[in-house]
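Quarterly update from the structural biology core.
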Amino acid sequence: LPVSLSVHCLDHDAFLFALCQDHKLRMWSYKDQMCLMVADLLEFMPVSRDLRLAAGTGHRLRLAFSQSLGLYLGVYMHAPKRGQFCVFQLVSTESNRYSLDHISSLFSSQETLIDFALTSAEIWALWHNEENQTVVKYINFEQNVAGQWNQVFMQPLPEEEVTVRHDQDPRETYLEYLFMPGRFTNAAIQKALQIFSQGTETHVDLTWEELKKEVTLAVEREFQGSMTEYECSPEEFWQLQVEFWSKFYACCLQYQEALSRPLALHLNPYTNMVCLLKKGSLSFLMPCSLVDHLYLLSNEHHLSEDDAAIFDDLEMSRDVVCLVQCLQLIGESISMEMAFIMEMACFRLQPPEKAAEQILEDLIANDTENVMEDVHSKLQEIRNPIHAISMLIREMDYETDAEMERAHHLSMRMNLTQLYGSSTAVSVVCCGVCKIATIRFLICRDLLILQQLLLRLGDPVVLGGGQLFQSQQDLLHRTSPLLLSYYLIRWASQCLASDVPIDTLESNLQHLSVLELADTTALTPHKLVSGPQTIVELFFREVARKHIISRLFSQPNTSLAETSLNWPHLITAIVADFLPLLWPSNPGFLFPECLMGNCQYTQLQEYIRLLQPWCHVNMGSCCFMMGRCYLVMGEGHKALDCFCQAASEVGREEFLDRLIQPEEGEVVSTPRLQYYSKVLRLLDMVGLPELVIQLATLAIMESADDWRSQATLRTCIFKHHLDLGHNNEAYVALTQNPDPGRQLDCLRQLVVVLCERSQLQDLVEFPYVNLLNEVVGIIESHARAVDLMTHNYYELLYAFHIYRHNYRKAGTVMFEYGMRLGREVRTLRGLQKQGNCFLAAINCLRLIRPEYAWIVQPASGAVYERPGASPKRTHDGECTTVPTTCQIEILELEDLERQCVLAQIRLTLVQHDLSTAAVAGNSTPEETLVLLVRAGLFDTAITLCQTFKLPLTPIFEGLAFKCIKLQLGGEAAQAEAWNWLAANQLSSLVTTKESSATDEAWRLLSSYLERYPTQNSLYHRCVINKLLAHGIPLPNWLINNYKKVDAAQLLRLYLNYDLLEEAVDLVLEYIDAVLGKGHQYFGIEFPLSAMAPMMWLPYTAIDQLLQALRESTANHHNIVLYQKLHDKIEDYHEKVSMATQDRLYRHK
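Predicted structure, tokenized:
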């Protein structure tokens, strides 16, 4: 029966190889269905009778094919207490016959073989030793004549117990240990959680953070459930916590051990990648450097001279091997307490040399196994210890003089852009880095202790022929930074990255865009599902991988086949290129920059804290990064201190140089000023005006000879002082600005902001040395450009001039304000403000000497030339011609008083009738008069006429018309009339039931005619004319009044309106009055007589009346009137003739 089968396809056939229980190897052809070869494998190993008779159940068979060497067969022959590997090459003979060519036989130890893999040169084997521990070894069966297997150093299981000091919180200590990256798998913790919770809950697909919360809740729940007493001492509480957490840790350890047990060994023939297949995971085997290999090698394994040839100089190689063996002796003697001393020294930023010295003293004090004598003895074998230490340090130092080239585009190798980009590949690379850093840290620690021992010994023989003390000190000071570098890389490899919300990333992107660093990293959040992501993994995934792969595959003359994807070579090259990117003392600054770009501020802060005291490279960049961290944490003043410290390194560090690259078209200033400019933008975006002011003030000292930068900084200081409400400081910054253009912009902003804040006292009282005209111009332009009712720029300008006793300008401002209010704000409130403006203007002029009490009339229509204003155009789209000259009008105090009266009258009108507000605001006196008459405000209208010397005719005509309407109107008109009648002062107003609105209107008209007489009775005539035009009979009082004044004109009016009867009556009465009958009613002082003055009648009008009566003979009544008038005239003529003769007789 076959116990192991393998298949290989070759030459259009499939060959089946079977290793059977009878210890024979058979080869079958699938194509021919026949056995091609049978080989007895016992011929190639020492056998006994028992072995030949026993069934070979533990045999293994593996194949390996090489294009150049053909097919190899690897056979493991199992025998009790021993085993043997045989390697054969398949040889083809004539007639399609095959045979085996024996290549090598290798003997193995008594360990139990689980699996093995074969290549054309090596055998890899997986064993379990007597302690049931996993062992992996490999051997080159072609070159290793001695048959010595090489040991593979496996990842050890976590410690069986976690040490918790009394000053530590058990929960935090255990959680930190359990969730340390690479220590426990997610599956192991979830299994342990399920068992610990007694299977009540199932936890599937939990993130690392969610799993941590569930673990904490489960342990705390069990812990609280076991508390039987309400009170216990802190010591008992601490002990109970340790007990329950250790119980859960034991469950995790049990499942981790079960899931970590290897099941098989896998070797990829194309890339030579070797993997361990485990129950719960997959482990990758990585090449180990010879220095690390020497340090990890156990004492029972010894290297040959060829394997130990680290350098070309064999004696130097032997020295280094002996040196590493000394380090092994020291490392094996160090207890956990001693190791903790060095760990805490690095964490607390204490000198590692001091910690090494203390550990050495503890080693010497507790040296029960004479380790120090063994070390001293081994040192005797070293020819030149100082040189050997120097060479070892050089092998472990990744410091470079120049920064690695930044990533190139992989446009020609798109198939490589995702190489090593998976989560597994990232984890493998970073775990490899962490492992190297951990081993190298231990090497450096032990090396520091050894160096302290050498200093203590001071033996010239041991120190290689009297080495100088200074050389030893130099090496000590080289080793210390090396140890701290590996400590920092190890810390970063174990430090978890934070899961950052999208809004935080977007905010960070805005800040980076200000610094013009937004393109340095890919800002995409990663949800941590299967396990945590360390900051080193984040860096490799986002930044370092592209740089490394680009550099490895960017040689122009090499093909992809030449740059092999061989796993051992490639992973070694990637790690070797990755470590310099992480190396703290290299000029490159990509790692901290990546942390900043991905919002890992807490981690970045701790990274810089561990780095700053001893690393003097990129000090300014670190200060800048620390400032960014403080800024995000809300500690602005600390951030400012860091930014200021970083300024001293501008121009010396690559990161800061990239930070200050000028934008396209930007005026280049000094590097430090460019740096300050970027930081100022950042602080401005974050919203820290106080810090902006501080930094800008500091930057001004750096820009003594650069007036442009000074202007920018002064403007910045002004802006933020103004935003903070520091008005005085803002004004000082404004006055110190050397750029007139910027100064004017700042002044304009100061005016607007203080007006909006209503801080007008500050605005008025600033001295404005050499800026007075500019301030006035700014306020004037704003006053003329904005809404009058929402901004008070005119009142501000008035106060501005009053404060400086410039009363004429103050009066001009208020007069212009009043004019614009009338034009633009045609409301009751606008008219009220207009009146106040005119009163203020009058007061200003009254404060000036009379000969200077005048102002210039503001431009009509408030058209002012404003910068940037669009040109006025006609309806054809053509620009209107601007008049080159304008007439200047001077207004004196009397003119302003008249305008004030007009404003008060307009206000009275609008208060009486709001509907007139739209037209009254900018109306002329004549237009206002019409509105007043229409509204019935006759007293106010008379005041207007008297002020502007206007005739009262429109008033009498309007009042007469209202009387007509009242006489003809109904009750509604009567009720409405009382409103306007009440607005006019009538001294003898009678408000009785017998008195109607019509009566009062007629009485008002009568009082006006009496109060405002004219020489030619113009107002009587216009009233009578209005009444007669509307066919209204003349009131007796009006006829009687007018008869006394101008009876002839009354006659003419009668004739004009064809009132013949009234005209005849008037003429008859008039003739009687002339003749002495009722002469007092016509204002005739002396009737007709020989002694009286000469008198005459209006013969022309009387002749017209007679003619009119004569022409209307068809009307009998007119004939009677004609005859009556004719007789009266004849009678008058006779009496006139007699009076004339008497007069002539008297004169004789």
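Residues 290 and 310 are 7 Å apart (CA to CA).
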